[in-house]
Each structure stands twice: as C-alpha cells, then as structure tokens.
Specification:
With 296 residues, the protein is mainly beta. It is built from 3 helices and 12 strands. It has a single domain, classed as Porin, CATH 2.40.160.20. The chain is 10% helix and 41% strand. It starts with a helix and ends in a 10-residue tail after the last strand.
Length: 296
C-alpha cells in the first residue's frame, strides 16, 4: 500500500521539477569586460585581415573596457531569447606592428561603439539543484552548477572613428579621407559561447566571449584606396596619409613607387570590420508566483 502512495507522489515531484523553469523565465543580466577590434588597423606582424581571420590581429595592448545590460526570456529549458545593450571602445594602431607596409602607413584610430542586439541562446545543459522533494528511497539528481551555451543574433551599432591631430581627437567621417561619406550606423551579427555558474536557483555569474561581424568596413575609417587630398587643408592631408616614408624607391631622384600615392591600397574592402566583447556577467532570475506543490 505504501508503494502505491509513493508512486503518484513521485510522479508529482518529477512533474514539479520538470516544469519549475517556467516560474523563473525572466532574467536580467549585467556584464563588465573588454573589447578588441579586428580590422585593417591591427597588431599582427604581417598583412592584416578582418573578421574571424583577423583574430591574429588581436592586440592586447589595445584592450579597452565594455559594459552591457540585458534581459533574457526562457522559451524552453534549452532555449532563451535575449536583448542586450552594450557600450565598448575600439582602438587600432599601425605603430604596434613590425610589418613594414602597415608600419609605414602609420594610421591609428579610436571609436566608441554602442550596440543594441537580440539573440537566440541554446543551452545543451542547464543548471539544477536536485529534486524539490525528499522522499525515502528516491535517489535525487546530482547538483549541477554549470550551464554552457552558444548564441547567435542580429542587431545594430553606432560608431564614430577619431584620430589624434595636434593634441586633439578629430572625427574622421566628415573629412572623407577616402572620399566616401559612409554611415556611422551598421548592422552587427553577434555569435559566441558562454558559461554560467549558478550560485542559487535565481543568481548566477558567467563568462562570455562574443564575436561581432559587421556590415561596415569603416569602423576604423580605413577600407579602400588613397585619394588625392592636395587641395585639402593640412589637417585632412595628414589624417588621410600620415605615412612615415619607410617604403619607397627612387630613380634619378624621382619616385617610381610610393605605396601611399593616390590610387594605392589603403585598406582591404573585401573584409568587413569585426570586434570582440569578452564579459564577466551577473545574472538574476525573477520568480513568478510560488510553486504551490506539497512538500515532504
């Protein structure tokens, strides 16, 4: 008779555990970390590249801070939707490479980036703290504090590249250094991995690394070819071409090769810019109502 009583109680217990995630579907997140730029102005000691190929250009000397806040909604135990607002700073500097052509180019920039994005997250393993009930003879689940995940999303970001001239930071877009009036708003496609460590049913901390592909190649104001700025003012001429004259060739005292002459390559338009956010996160789930189930 005792076994007949335990069986329905056990089934009720398991049902309560399997459905308990629905009572904590809403989660707020806060993140603090670093940002790194992946584009034409990187730190590798060879020809640069952007995007995922540009990870070799990741320059730790140019690490800058990032902050983020977000809202997560669990649509199932394994999937969640998340909205994020992030602010970071991006930097690039040819002076940090020994590759002769990039060093000779001598370009540098810094830019804020404000990103608003949504994404889908997949959790192959969720955190849990065992059964909600203690019944004699029933073996409960082991506690698992770790919850790894992967994510993919889409959003938009604003940027504003600047370079230093005469002790002041000057916005580069209005100067049209390459003769292009590009937009300072771009689409971004976040993708990455993370892991959360649950301190309790509601509170967790985590680590997340996310690559952002973009639809712009002008985050660093560098994309295509040098143009003729002979009619521009001295500031524009310098910021468009601050080259060091390290690469040249003369015949009878005249240039036969000038890598920064109008029409020569200044950047690589075949690769769009990208950047990376690495965040330490704090996450808090809001409990909806109470689990009105019997306790044993």
């Amino acid at each position: 008779m005792k076994n007949f009583i335990l069986i329905p109680l056990l089934l009720l217990s398991l049902t309560g555990v399997s459905q308990s995630w629905k009572y904590m579907r809403h989660e707020v997140t806060f993140g603090l970390g670093t940002s790194h730029f992946l584009g034409e102005l990187g730190g590798a000691n060879d020809i640069g590249s952007s995007g995922i190929k540009g990870f070799k250009d990741l320059e730790f000397k140019l690490t800058r801070p990032t902050v983020a806040a977000g809202y997560r909604f669990y649509v199932s135990p394994m999937f969640a939707l998340k909205a994020d607002l992030s602010y970071g700073r991006l930097n690039g500097d040819d002076a940090l490479t020994t590759e002769i052509f990039r060093q000779n180019r001598n370009l540098s920039f810094r830019s804020p980036v404000i990103e608003l994005a949504g994404r889908v997250e997949f959790y192959p393993l969720r955190e849990y703290f065992g059964h909600l009930y203690r019944t004699n003879g029933v073996v409960g689940k082991k506690v698992n504090h770790f919850s790894p995940y992967i994510f993919l999303g889409v959003g938009g970001a604003w940027f504003n590249p600047k370079a230093e001239y005469d002790g002041k930071w000057v916005a580069l877009k209005p100067l049209q250094t390459e003769g292009v009036d590009y937009k300072r708003i771009m689409a971004v496609f976040p993708m990455g991995v993370g892991v959360k460590y649950a301190i309790s049913n509601q509170l967790s901390i985590g680590l997340e690394i996310g690559l952002r592909y973009t639809t712009s190649d002008y985050v660093d104001d560098v994309s295509d070819l040098y143009i003729d700025h002979s009619a521009s003012d001295a500031m524009t001429q310098y910021l468009a071409d601050p080259s060091l004259d390290l690469v040249h060739s003369y015949v009878d005292g005249s240039y036969v090769y000038n890598p920064t002459a109008p029409g020569m390559q200044r950047g690589d338009p075949s690769d769009k810019d990208a950047y990376v956010f690495t965040l330490i996160t704090a996450n808090y789930k809001f409990m909806k109502g109470k689990l009105n189930l019997p306790k044993f």
